[in-house]
Design goal:
By secondary structure, this protein is mainly alpha-helical. The chain has five helices and three strands; from the N terminus they run βββααααα. The chain has two domains: 59 residues, no CATH class; 98 residues, Four Helix Bundle (Hemerythrin (Met), subunit A) (Up-down Bundle), CATH 1.20.120.
Length: 193
C-alpha cells in the first residue's frame, strides 16, 4: 500500500519496510489507526441521520412567541368523578352542570376560532407591532365576549362545587379550573384572584 506500509500476520499491526529495504523484521511494530476512512464515513452518516430525525421534532415543539388557546373542554365526567370520589347520586346531580360547562367551553372555542379567522382575513395583527386603534377595539370586543363565556363557565363550575362535600371541594380546588380566557400577564387579561 502507499507510504511503504504492509499488513503483517496480526490484524492490528503494520510493519515498516522502508527502513530495512524491504526485509521483514519484527522489532518495530506500529499499531494501525482504527479510525479508518470507512469508520469515519459511518460516523458521519449516523450524524447526518440523527440531524434528519431531530429536525421534525424541533418543528413540532410550540413556538415560544405564540401561546396555545385554552382547550375546548374541561375534563371527562369519569375523570372528575374518579378524582373527587363522587357517589352515583352526586354524579347524577352534577352531570347537567358539567355538560353545560363543557358546552360553554366548546362554544367559546368555536367563537375564538371564528374571531381569529376574521382577524387574519382582514389583514390581522402582526406580533411585535403596536395594534391600530381599530384592531385594539376588535381585541377589546373579543376579550369582553370571551370574559362573558368565562363568567358563564364559572357559574357552572360553582354549581358543581356546591353539590360536593367540603373534602371533595378541596379536591376540586386542587384540580385545574376550566379556562375559557387566558388570565394573567401572558394572556392579556387580569390576574385571577
Amino acid at each position: 500500500m502507499g507510504a511503504g506500509l504492509e499488513y503483517g500476520p496480526l490484524p492490528n499491526v503494520a510493519r515498516c519496510n522502508k527502513l530495512n529495504a524491504g526485509h521483514r523484521f519484527d522489532v518495530q511494530q506500529v499499531p494501525i489507526n482504527h479510525w479508518s476512512l470507512s469508520n469515519m464515513r459511518m460516523i458521519s452518516r449516523c450524524f447526518v441521520l440523527a440531524l434528519l430525525l431531530a429536525a421534525p421534532l424541533v418543528a413540532q415543539t410550540p413556538s415560544t412567541g405564540r401561546f396555545q388557546p385554552p382547550p375546548d373542554h374541561w375534563m371527562t365526567i369519569d375523570s372528575l368523578s374518579q378524582a373527587l370520589g363522587l357517589s352515583a347520586e352526586q354524579r347524577a346531580k352534577i352531570t347537567p352542570s358539567y355538560t353545560a360547562l363543557n358546552g360553554v367551553m366548546k362554544d367559546a372555542a368555536a367563537r375564538r376560532q371564528a374571531i381569529r379567522q376574521q382577524m387574519q382575513a382582514s389583514g390581522g395583527f402582526v406580533p411585535g407591532q403596536e395594534p391600530t386603534p381599530a384592531q385594539r377595539a376588535r381585541f377589546d370586543s373579543a376579550r369582553t365576549e370571551m370574559e362573558g363565556f368565562q363568567a358563564e363557565a364559572d357559574q357552572y363550575y360553582a354549581a358543581i362545587r356546591n353539590n360536593l362535600t367540603p373534602d371533595q371541594q378541596a379536591k376540586l380546588d386542587a384540580l385545574p379550573k376550566p379556562q375559557v380566557v387566558r388570565r394573567g400577564p401572558m394572556g392579556g387579561g387580569q390576574p385571577r384572584q
